[in-house]
């Protein structure tokens, strides 16, 4: 595990608890040149990433870009690994964040609701993180394997895949029937 300063540990641990792994706002008392130096060092090491801020969701700004937009900071997979968070959960959250900008921003919501949902953080050591780890394996996982790993009923495992992973997190999950295993699901 890399050697982190107290400030770096604090920024990353707070980001791990926030929706979408947002590193903003920075800890109280960290501003100006000290904040710039800390953030630049963390970006250089690959622990933080500067991304477009979604002002509709109220994401705090790191800096303004001058064209009426701004950027915010998120903890990367490497940053979360630096503080001991499982890489599986970190990569799933990172893929959700990266999938959002590709959506067509010009489409209006069809239900009349506003887009106020915040990205979900996946906690390490949860059954959701276990299932994501199983689905990320090259061989994937069948419902029977997920049931065995989680002690859930089959309908609960299927509901987790279709509801939480596909709809809520936006993960691309493929399914294929394999002889001897039945339907096998994979993230990819």
Structural class: alpha+beta
Strand order of the largest sheet: 1-3-2
Q: What is the number of helices?
A: 7
Measured distance between first and last alpha carbons: 28 Å
The name of the CATH architecture of the largest domain is: Orthogonal Bundle
Give the amount of beta strand, in percent: 5-15%
Q: Which spans have pLDDT < 50 for at least 5 consecutive residues?
A: 99-118
Structure commentary:
- This protein is α+β, with helices and mostly antiparallel strands and 188 residues long.
- It folds into two domains: 6-85, Arc Repressor Mutant, subunit A (Orthogonal Bundle); 127-187, Winged helix-like DNA-binding domain superfamily/Winged helix DNA-binding domain (Arc Repressor Mutant, subunit A).
- 41% of the residues lie in helices and 14% in strands.
- The protein has a three-stranded antiparallel beta sheet.
- Mean pLDDT is 78; it is low at 99-118.
